[in-house]
Amino acid sequence: MSGLFSKENRKPAIILLSAPVILTTFRYYGTKDFYLNHLAPAFSFFVNGELVSALYTFSSSLILLGLLPALTVKFIFHESLSHYGVRLGDWQFGAKAFLILGPIMIALTYPSSRMESFVAEYPLYKGAGVSPPVFIVYSLLYLFYYLGWEFFFRGYMQFGLKGRLGDANAILVQTLASCLLHIGKPHAEIYSSILGGIVWGMVVLRARSLLPVLLLHWLLGISLDAFIIYS
């Protein structure tokens, strides 16, 4: 333990110690279930509790998974966020990856949209399909959820750990963490998150940017919602 916070171990130690704290906090206090069960009665003046609960989840992800790690990078590690994938990177590779993987992501969501477990879980706001404008606004707001998610796993954890653990191990560690956070979701989603964590981790490293995977993950989410609502 004496070397846990030595110069070479300080950053990975902080990341690996803060990760379970942040993820546990998000899992228990940052979801729509927590809002509906514990906060909604105090905010009953909101007409649509389901909508607010979805917005609460999006905001929690952005703050807990995005903002807190970003502040750690800036004020504890004293590093630029660009070193954690917040940059354009190799945009040509990123564009190719998006154009190739995007249609695959859309195709993979259709079978899931026919499963009762996914229909029960998504969309996070069940009223998202009341009209096309509402769905568009909901989808744009959903992007904030993925901003937090991708910065935490593929940015904070993967880019933060790769210098000490190496590229492959950094991918595996963030994949492990992201898979565990899926527990409670439909079984197929939990298992697919393992493959997704590895593939998206590789794309992020090659692109040197979170952007292509951020857009791919968001596309996956809104495609699933669209198929559930409109099919």
What does the model show?
- This protein is an all-alpha fold and 231 residues long.
- The protein has one domain (10-230).
- It contains nine helices and no strands.
- α2 (32-39) packs across α3 (49-75) and α3 (49-75) runs parallel beside α6.
- The longest helix is centred in the middle third of the chain and has 34 residues, at 132-165.
- The chain starts with 9 loop residues before the first helix and ends with a helix.
- 36% of the residues are buried.
- The mean pLDDT is 94.
Topology of this structure?
Elements: H1 10-29, H2 32-39, H3 49-75, H4 91-113, H5 116-121, H6 132-165, H7 167-181, H8 187-207, H9 211-230
Give the number of DSSP strands: 0
Query: What characteristic shape results from the CA principal axes?
Result: globular
State the end-to-end CA separation: 56 Å
- Structural class category: mainly alpha
Number of helical elements: 9
Average of the residue pLDDT scores: 94
* SSE sequence, one letter per element: HHHHHHHHH
Number of domains as seen in the coordinates:
1
Oligomer: single chain
For the sheet with most strands, the description reads: none
Rg, please? 18 Å
How big a fraction of the residues is strand?
under 5%
What share of residues is helical? over 70%
Low-confidence stretches: none
Quick description:
The protein has helices at 10-29, 32-39, 49-75, 91-113, 116-121, 132-165, 167-181, 187-207, 211-230. The chain is mainly alpha-helical.
